[in-house]
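hey
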């Protein structure tokens, strides 16, 4: 798709000149990115390899972790590059690619969280019919919808923004944002605004209706059910609620910051909070689910215990081998000095 703007690059204007501290910031961000990759990949492998985790809830979790890997990859490589640069620019084509990736990540994350709340509703409110209702085919269809619908919606949004004629090329953020590109347009943006409103309403209303309905039914069962039912609801729903609230907080701040004037906040705080839903969600989700879900926690413990056992055995074998060699050397030395 051809962009009609005369600019070939966008300027990302939110980067601060921190001098030599940029190297410390670079190392910190790099370590954060490595932790995100390792933790998410570890849990994806754990879920895929262990047949005991081949259940609907864990398939949704695996989809969540894959999305968070893609979302963090949409922002971290560029962020690391720009931290070390003095001039913060990005080509127009890469800017729209980043917009597509970030918006897709955010919408897919919300849809997966909504699908997970529906799964918890069926598991807690209809436990006897759970495996009948949540078949492998239905899980596959839900996962396909949670990815396909947001990707199509975001694709249409980007296709409407790309042809706009722009009067400027300065974006006051550390990454590309469709809202600010539309604000830079000189041409008519009525279609963009209308589609943006419809698109936002559809996503938010559909996601919120599924989540509110699911958890209202779960709460009703908890208040009227047995102690075992309440314990199951708390143990399986707590990580999901924490993850949902964490992500919604980051998204809400980003929306408020873009739509309303929040320049009274320190620039560093605004930059951090604008990156929150892109960095903290992929970082916290593996910890939240890995520590709170018993099956995943036990399997991770067993993996680390086995690795530690093999390490101890290898060290013991190496020490034993060294000791054996030392005894042989001592014997040879004694024989050589004996008259």
């Amino acid at each position: 798709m051809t962009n009609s703007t005369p600019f070939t690059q966008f300027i990302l204007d939110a980067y601060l000149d921190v001098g030599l501290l940029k190297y410390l910031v670079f190392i910190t961000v790099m370590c954060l990115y490595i932790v995100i990759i390792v933790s998410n990949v570890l849990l994806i492998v754990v879920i895929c390899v262990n047949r005991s985790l081949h259940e609907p809830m864990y398939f949704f979790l695996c989809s969540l972790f894959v999305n968070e890997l893609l979302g963090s990859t949409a922002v971290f490589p560029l962020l690391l590059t720009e931290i070390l640069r003095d001039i913060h620019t990005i080509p127009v084509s890469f800017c729209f690619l980043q917009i597509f990736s970030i918006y897709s990540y955010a919408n897919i994350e919300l849809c997966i969280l909504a699908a997970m709340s529906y799964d918890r509703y069926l598991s807690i409110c209809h436990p006897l019919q759970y495996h009948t209702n949540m078949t492998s085919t239905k899980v596959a269809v839900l996962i396909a919808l949670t990815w396909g619908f947001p990707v199509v919606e975001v694709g249409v949004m980007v296709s409407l923004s790309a042809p706009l004629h722009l009067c400027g090329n300065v974006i006051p953020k550390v990454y590309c944002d469709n809202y600010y590109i539309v604000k830079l347009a000189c041409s008519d943006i009525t279609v963009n605004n209308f589609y943006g409103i419809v698109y936002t309403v559809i996503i938010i209303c559909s996601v919120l209706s599924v989540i509110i309905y699911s958890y209202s039914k779960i709460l009703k069962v908890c208040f009227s059910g047995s102690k075992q039912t309440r314990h199951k609801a708390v143990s399986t729903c707590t990580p999901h609620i924490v993850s949902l609230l964490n992500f919604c907080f980051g998204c809400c701040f980003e929306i408020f910051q873009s739509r309303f004037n929040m320049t009274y906040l320190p620039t560093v705080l605004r930059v951090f909070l604008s990156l929150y839903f892109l960095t903290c969600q992929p970082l916290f989700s593996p910890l939240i689910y890995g520590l709170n879900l018993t099956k995943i926690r036990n399997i991770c413990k067993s993996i680390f215990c086995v690795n530690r056992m093999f390490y101890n055995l290898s060290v013991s074998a190496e020490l034993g081998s060294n000791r054996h060699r030392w005894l042989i050397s001592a014997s040879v030395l004694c024989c050589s000095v004996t008259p």
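The two ends are 93 Å apart (CA to CA). Residues 293-339 form one domain.
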